[in-house]
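Morning F.,

Quick status update on the modeling queue. The single chain you submitted on Monday has been processed. Sequence for confirmation:
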Amino acid sequence: MKKFNITTTILALFVIALVGCSDEYFDVNTPSNTAALEELGMKDLIAPVIHSTMEGQRSAELAFGNYTQYFVSTGGGAAGQTSASGLWTQVYLYILPNLKVVKEKAIENNAPHIGAISDILVAINLGIATDTWDNIPYSEATQGPDSNFPAFDTQEQIYTEIFNLLDSAIAALSAADTSGFNLGSADLIYGGDSDSWLRAAYTIKARYQLHVMGKGVTSANDVLTTIANGFTSNADNFAMYYDEKNINPWYSAEVLSRETGNLSNDIASQIVSSTNGDYYPFNGAITIDPRLPEIAEIPDGDTEYRGFISGGAGKSPSGLVDANTRFKSDGFYTSIDSPLILISYAEAMFIKAEAAFLANGGTTTSVGTNATAYTAYMDGIAASMDMWGVDGTDYIADTSIDVGEGSLALHHIMKEKYIHNYLNPETFVDFRRYDFSDDVFTGLTIREEEDSDGDYFGQWFRRANYPSTELNRNETNVLANQQEPITPVWWDQ
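Structure tokens below.
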């Protein structure tokens, strides 16, 4: 996997002049300690945008990782309503306005590949935003003082724009760029490599096509056509690495916080029971998924991983012994220099496996598939083991995993995608796409909420509320679009 660590390039965050101190929506001004807009080049702007994009993804996961039962609050608490305000801030203050300028500068300098990269980044951020809130501001969102109270675009309109942006980027990256401009190390993902961005655009498009299949906008065969041009190995993973000077935020929030006596989260039973043999008993030489020790750790002397039931006040699934799992110190995602990963080659293979399974007539309860789906399923597992840096030989050979074409069910594919995409907000989309079905996500049960006040008790959360800051400044448009947090978003209806 390519590694492009965060460097001092990210200090450009402190000189960007695009978002000022005014309370107006996207009012553009220049504080005294910033560079003038005309002094900033495309390289100056792109690193902070990429950084904010990845931090925005993590903000979304902070909001939804409890819903998808990757983690629970200290001692097993279940999360209630969320506004995901950190994501809103990243998207609307630090990302979209800056990308608008990158695109303008790319056009001015006849640099189509950089313009394409900006389009991909806009599509990514529109995607996570609309999947979080449903209808969102976009067409009027970056007009500065000319539109301080932007109207909201519907999710259907946003998805149309996402596909337009990605198709435009694919066309541009498929053609030559003779401008001489290259982002180089300012591109914290691919180091300015256009071919990598092209494969990313196809893979991201396939992800979004999967989201809207239920609305009839796309088909499983459309997904298969797109993903065929996507990632080819873990070297293509859309990943941003941290370092000792710029430490990984999961390490900071979970491991460092815990070690310094502050609150941190614990690991939920759904992810543990999916990996410790509870839901899928192993039949060979292994007793746990080799990725589990990279996710969770247990106290010295304990030999069994027992995850926290969501809302269960410290209970484990057995009910007889307390839960004991917490975030792993120096785990794959919880080391000082761990990456944040937006989308990976393994996920691409699970997208392909799911699409091929459905295209072959598969349903949420059917068994059996074709060679395309099964090969992608197995390739996805192998890629996941490689990415996580563990030996998956015995796991892949176990008959609970290598079930054969005739016995493959959708829940096998989605279980592997769920484990692999640990701490990725895409899982919240998957849960909603399949209506939180335990036919698809084996063992999944709704939070217990033993200590809850009863708000929305027994109902799954399906979206975030709009942040209070947006309600205060754009009240009319927010109220016109706000729904209860249990209301499905457009593609989920």
